[in-house]
Amino acid sequence: MFHVVQYRPLRLIMQTSLSSMCLKLMLSRPVAFAQIWKSWFSSHSLIGNKNIILMGPPGAGKTTVGRIVGQKLDCPVIDIDDDVLETTWNMSVSEKLQDVGNEQFLEEEGKALLKFSASGSVISLTGSNPMHSAGMQHMKKNGIVVYLDVPTTAIMNRLKSMKVDRIVGQSPGISLKDILQFRKQFYKRWYDVRVLCGGDIAAEVVAEKVLDAVKRYQNSELETFISTRSSRSGRSMEKDSRKYFSDVVTEGLAPDGGLFVPERGLPKFTAGEWQSLIEATYIERAQVILERCIHPADIPASNLAEIIGTAYGENFSCSKIAPVRHLAGNQFLLELFHGPTASFKDFALQMVPHIFAYCIPRSCNYLVLVATSGDTGSAVLDGFSRLHDTDKQRIAVINFFPEDGVSPIQKSQMIGCQKENAWSVGVKSDFDFCQTAIKQIFTNSDYTGFLTVEYGTALAAANSINWARLLPQIVYHASAYLDLVHQGVISFGSPVDVCIPTGNFGNILAALYAKMMGIPIRKCICASNENNVLTDFIRTGVYDLRGRKLIPTFSPAVDILKSSNLERYLHLIANEDGQLVTQLYNQLENQGHFQLRKDLLDKLQPDLVAGLCSGEGCLAAIHSIYSTTGYILDTHTAVAKVVADRLQDRTCPIIISSTAHYSKFAPAILRALRIAEINQNPLSQLHLLSSYSPLPPVHWGLLETLKKKGNEDHQVCAADMSMLMSHIETLIQNHFM
Predict the structure, then answer these.
(1) Considering the entire predicted model, what is its pTM?
(2) CA separation (Å) from 250 to 2, 366, 590?
(3) Amino acid 261: pLDDT
């Protein structure tokens, strides 16, 4: 697979500096650990003569924190208010503001910054410095900007206790809260690293967090990825072939056939850090969580913000992006269908194409391969078709789906979402064949090498085997919990259960990851349909495909027998024993089954429980909920509802993932609602559903897609590896050559 190295100049600089520093320490006389720590920070974390620049709203504690950081590093501390502005103006800041007024004050403040220079110092900015672009550009040239992110409510309480009722830039008629919110856009523009600061956090703790954040910024080489099938001894021998976030996004599947996971695990948030996000918007939560999971050497915070804003800014029909709706009793629905293609896949696939375009080198074309059991196809086609025109010229996508294994509307949608760089190919087989075929193509080095040499084209994956697909899913599970806290349903720290219709194990794995990162999820309930291999495995520890055939159901997105992302979870509970994971999956491939050791099953079952729902049970649940509430569940959510009813103990709230909009499964929904005559035309079916004035309304994006002409045009391929590879080669020739 194509390997990217030239897109990490910041990493290479950091690694070289760190190596030199370690050599100096080894040659010096022995010193205590504390002295080594202090020496490392004073000479390395400031990157030579650069500064640590503390930025944040008034009342964030920049001055106090700056003094503590300076003491720890034994370096100069400069407060812009006291040491620069008042010295320059020969008057207090308040006197200057009264003298010149708001607008002129910002200009005068900026001019003072432009004349200021320092090195090797800790600098505390004023709350309004970031509003002067030229001044901040000047400061940023020689420093790491650390954003002290304090919730607005906490800032207002602090300012009230300080008897401050007005700040710079606050005009008559504008509230303090409004001006604080307005300023956030300027803070977000300039920072390199963010430090979350809850309302009651001590300055000493914030200072330690600043040092940790700067250390992380410096140590990008520590955030590496490994394969779920790599041995520990092999890892120590592969230091020169480290994989970083940019690599795993580009490569998708590890060379040994395993899946990439972060070597040091996922970041942990404190309870206070999570609580600081309770008032945040969905986009703000996504930014904070993903910044911790993606090193700025791979995607700087400002670029990540642009990607998140593009993904969620206008493409979702609900301003809350992933709203939580009360269903009944202690059950809540996490609505994940407000994106352009009406399923939870949009959360990742509106974002991943832009991440991918940012990470790959400009010197090579890329063809993204996708296998889908239903919802992924249209989501990935829509996402990659929204790239900038220059990116569409070098990035294309092929979606393979089971020709007769998806709903009619899903099929029409996948075909209707085709664009100049995005195509759908129906395969005369099931999803498991499509997914296995793609894995085999990725691990066929002769074939991938041929495509690179002959056509200058590398392959990449956008299925949930790609690590970048999982990260946005962690966000919505965390956000759902925070929403329940914000709504007053629970207090932070109270547990919830989650119930998720599960096929490929990616969505439920993301919930498990959210739990690991500090969200108080008690149990993850895996909801299966008649293809209940996962339910059997969670109950018994035996993963057995022998004699099983895929059963077409009303919930096709979970009609899966080989759950790819389960491998990541097994690697986690096996303490990163790649040899064991390799053994299990070799046995599954060769013998059709494997059995988990009892000690590992004992680790799994406290986190996971599982149940199944029949087709008739699914339809009955849809009818029952509509009859009592007027709300229509889709067929996958109905599966989860039935399993949740059966398995929850009602001692805590349960969040049911509503993974798709019912409009995608109109024939099954109409049958569930006991409507006798069903027109076979998908558009007519949606109009019929709309006539019932359901909640939520029929999905806008589906209606628009189905209205387009030419939806019947797509290629169909036999279930043959050589045929699939031939299709890939033909499409490369047509698009890139």
Answers:
(1) 0.89
(2) 8, 9, 29
(3) 97
